[in-house]
Design a protein that fits this description.
Elements: E1 7-9, H1 17-34, E2 38-51, E3 53-64, E4 69-80, E5 85-96
Antiparallel strand pairs: 1-2, 2-3, 3-4, 4-5
């Protein structure tokens, strides 16, 4: 169980539809906010912080559909599940995605 206010790494998120839905929400909100054209690819890692709700720190891969360039992004999504509330707090590129060989 996470300590209130502390950030903890999460395991087993790879097959979580809830985590994937949060990542897709982050990409969709970023597309609306910045008029970008990103396509969600996959979740790379997840950390969570318990506050008044949960802040999900999601590292994800997304492809810019205009340039076909894949990058890694960090997104922060604040969620209060009991209120059906989600808000994208931060979304930033942190580098190019690893290439498959």
């Amino acid at each position: 169980m996470a300590t209130v206010g502390g950030i903890s790494g999460e395991k087993g998120f790879q097959n979580s539809l809830d985590v994937e839905a949060l990542a897709q929400f982050a990409v969709s909100e970023q597309n609306k906010k910045e008029n970008s054209n990103l396509k969600f690819e996959k979740v790379v890692s997840l950390k969570q912080q318990v506050v008044a709700g949960t802040i999900h720190h999601i590292t994800l891969e997304a492809t810019d559909k205009d340039s076909n360039h894949k990058k890694v992004y960090e997104a922060k999504v604040w969620e209060k599940a009991w209120m059906n509330f989600k808000e994208l707090q931060d979304f930033k590129a942190i580098g190019d995605a690893p290439t498959s060989s």
